[in-house]
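#structure-requests
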Amino acid sequence: MQIEIWNPVIGYENLYDVSNLGNIRSLIKRGCNRVAMLKQGYDIRTGYKYVQLYKDNKHLSIKIHSIVVEAFLKIKTTRKLVCNHIDGNKLNNKLNNLEVISQKENVKHGIRLGLTKFLSGDECPATKLKSNDLLKLKKLFQEGKTSKEIALMFNMSPSTISRIRQGKRRKLELSEKYKCNYIPNEAKELAISLIKEGKKPYYIEQKTKIGRKTKLMKNLMMIYAEQYGNILK
């Protein structure tokens, strides 16, 4: 049997104690002058146990696991530094079942135990583009529509559409012609015009949105390099 050890609740010293087994007791004398164990509540939304602590005429609901780690490990949890239940049971607030880790590590731990399901694509409620929308996108890419034009149709940002086109988000089965190497004819013509004017590569990239290191830009530079000198280097 594990020995129960008591420490003061941080911020409520001389009012409440917390044990390494996750119990909370009040030091405020009542009735027969006895120390009373606090009744623990259950938050149906989060699945965590909590208690209500009273101080300076104010009641505050605090999660049990936060009280335990702060009292025994001397670590205050934050949004980035969270308390993790090692066995995955949120109701087990014993000290030996608690650890303080990063939010990222906490998510990975939940996935390993099968407590957190990573949803993507159509399964994710937050997904703006469903499979049918992606088929429409593919058709629009093949028709030569620009990211800006498509973004207006779907009420999304052009950068998001560009990332989809490049396969960085919601990958599409596109031929090489319509992936990131696809550049609208208007942009190509503008790039050639600027190259002939002797503009620097950085300036051309800003005006045409064609990356200096893309295959297309490199080809254009090679074509016009001899005629327009070393400006493209």
